[in-house]
Amino acid sequence: MWNWSNSDLKVRLTLRVAAVSTLCLAAISCYFLIDSEHTVRARVEAIAGVTARTLELQQSKIQWVNNPRSDFPDLDAVAASVMTSGLCLAFRTSEGDVRQRICSGAQSDTAAPPIAFAALYRRLFDPGREAVHPVTVSGNAIGEAVVWIDPAVLTAGAWHDAGRLMAAFAIALPLLCALVYAALARALRPTRLICDGLERIAANDLTARLPPFDLAELSAIRDVFNHLAESLATALADRNELTQKLISLQDEERRHLARELHDEFGQSLAAIRALAASARQTAAQDCPPLLAECDGIARTAAGMMETLRGALFRLRPPDVDELGLAASLEGLVAGWNVRSRGRPRFEIAISGTFERLASSISANLYRIVQEALTNAAKHAGATRVALRLEMRESDPQLSTPCEIALAIDDDGRPGDPPVKSGMGLLGMRERVAALGGRLSFEAGHGKGSSLRVLVPVAISQPVGAAAEYAA
């Protein structure tokens, strides 16, 4: 079934041209049929007038020569000059008697028109109507000259003329549609360039520009498109610069908060544990019932110190520049496995060498993984989280012949928009955008979600699968 709403513009316009042409043919056909009918009626009226005058002359001649035996009426003289296919001449007396009638036969090679066309033509034009002119002699009417054409002959002639017109239209219409389609295809060829440019913009290629066009309308689109691409490129550059500043500020705030917690709360908790140990020694000598309370204080302080260590680890991760990205991620995964006691189970697989990465790339990738693991463990309720990090080689002709592929899959709940689509994912997107990479997140209809990150990098020496890690 034809889907008109999604049809090709060239096809749609060509069909409209065909429809308009068909309507024009119908109008022209009607005009020619009406004009032909008027022409036939005028001709029949003229023949009737000539016949009436001829009969009047014949009657006057009879009276002048006083020859009552002369043949009257004599229509042969008129018929010899005016007779055509289907034409009939007659003289009808004042009493209504037809004294003479001459009719010519129809052409035998004329094809009979369709019944529907014949019925319509007779309904519209009433062919075969008589043209009547009185025959008068000395002011007295002695009869009438009657002329008509056989309706079947008129209908066949109209169908013949209409058939020739339709045959010419049947030949011209496909040719016209082909020419219109070709002209539209040529005129709309630049729209393919516009679609390609939009697809490049949608793929975050803001260097896309449209070339000049001949048509003024397409040139206006080109100007707006190029201005939009330039504006988007400028806005994206400004956003990336602001994002870098915000990320740096956020990391600095985290480091500052980690120092404050370590210096203040860490020392306070250490002091509490020392006081608890001292109080226990005193209680062991003087008041044994207080030993349980002292042990409880010590356990509480130890638990708080363990919680503080985890918070400090998240706020201030190990120095990625010193340990390297691979070792830092292995330590992060191992820490999660220890804290979660095997539920969920975190797995990691690293392929390639990452020692020569820039510190900004390593730090941002570490933060992305840290945020993703936190979401999977604390919010998605996952039982298994798999992390894969791979250094891939790409086309050496490119400015960045390598790219880092990061994949994180979990089997947790996929439908928690505030966590999965909120600031955590937004922060990861900003970090990836700052690195010039691409991020995609997919949540399955059942259970689980997938995070994919691709970051282009430039490394001076070839990259191979020199290191394989599994934890």
UniProtKB/TrEMBL annotation:
Transmembrane segments: 13-34, 165-184
Family matches, as SMART domains: HAMP (SM00304), HATPase_c (SM00387)
Domain of life: Bacteria
Keyword check for Glycosyltransferase: no
Sequence ranges assigned to domain HAMP in this UniProt record: 185-237
Location in the cell: Membrane
InterPro entries, per the entry: HAMP_dom, HATPase_C_sf, HATPase_dom, Sensor_HK_TwoCompSys, Sig_transdc_His_kin_sub3_dim/P
GO MF terms, alphabetically ordered: kinase activity
The entry's keywords: Kinase, Membrane, Phosphoprotein, Transferase, Transmembrane, Transmembrane helix, Two-component regulatory system
Protein name: Sensor histidine kinase
Originating organism: Bradyrhizobium jicamae
